[in-house]
């Protein structure tokens, strides 16, 4: 019985797009929203978040069972490009935060080069390594 059911399901899924990074994201986001709704007291927020969660679930399953490989692949590539840009942004902010605890970052008025100077040195004359312009700043 289970073998027959398994074969039937396999035949139904043959030729379908399947799951990818974008579908995983949609399912995860929908699941997170569904869990958050357990703690929401406002009726309208609850309804809105539940609707968005269901839309994510339904759209993810529509994508998984689609036969249009080109369109789904293009959507996944756009998602991965946006995800890569977001990760780059977050990593830059983390690095900037880590540096900002020990250094102050100045921007050269001539070439807009970023220059880091150790904190606690008082007023310093900063020479830009790129354009050799000198300016003062308090570290």
Structure write-up:
The chain is an alpha+beta fold and 139 residues long. It is built from four helices and four strands; from the N terminus they run H-H-H-H-E-E-E-E. It has two domains: 15-100, no CATH class; 102-139, no CATH class. It has helices at residues 2-13, 21-36, 43-64, 69-100; strands spanning 103-107, 114-118, 123-127, 134-138. Strand 1 (103-107) and strand 2 form a beta hairpin. Helix 2 runs antiparallel to helix 3 (43-64). The longest helix has 32 residues, at 69-100. It starts with a helix and ends with a strand.
Helix content: 55-70%
Q: How would a crystallographer describe the biggest sheet?
A: 2 strands, antiparallel
Q: What is the percentage of strand-forming residues?
A: 5-15%
How many whole angstroms does the radius of gyration measure? 26 Å
Anisotropy-based shape: elongated
Strand order of the largest sheet: 1-2
**Number of DSSP helical runs:** 4
- Provide the residue-averaged pLDDT: 91
End-to-end distance: 75 Å
SSE pattern: HHHHEEEE
Indicate the low-confidence ranges by residue numbers: none
Number of strands: 4
């Amino acid at each position: 019985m289970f073998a027959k059911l398994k074969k039937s399901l396999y035949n139904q899924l043959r030729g379908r797009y399947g799951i990818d990074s974008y579908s995983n994201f949609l399912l995860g986001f929908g699941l997170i929203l569904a869990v958050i709704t357990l703690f929401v007291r406002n009726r309208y927020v609850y309804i809105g978040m539940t609707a968005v969660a269901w839309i994510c679930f339904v759209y993810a399953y529509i994508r998984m069972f689609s036969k249009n490989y080109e369109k789904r692949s293009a959507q996944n590539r756009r998602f991965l490009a946006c995800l890569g840009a977001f990760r780059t942004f977050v990593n830059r902010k983390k690095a900037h935060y880590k540096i900002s605890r020990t250094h102050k970052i100045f921007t050269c008025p001539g070439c807009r080069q970023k220059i880091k100077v150790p904190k606690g040195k008082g007023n310093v004359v900063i020479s830009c390594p790129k354009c050799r312009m000198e300016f003062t700043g308090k570290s």
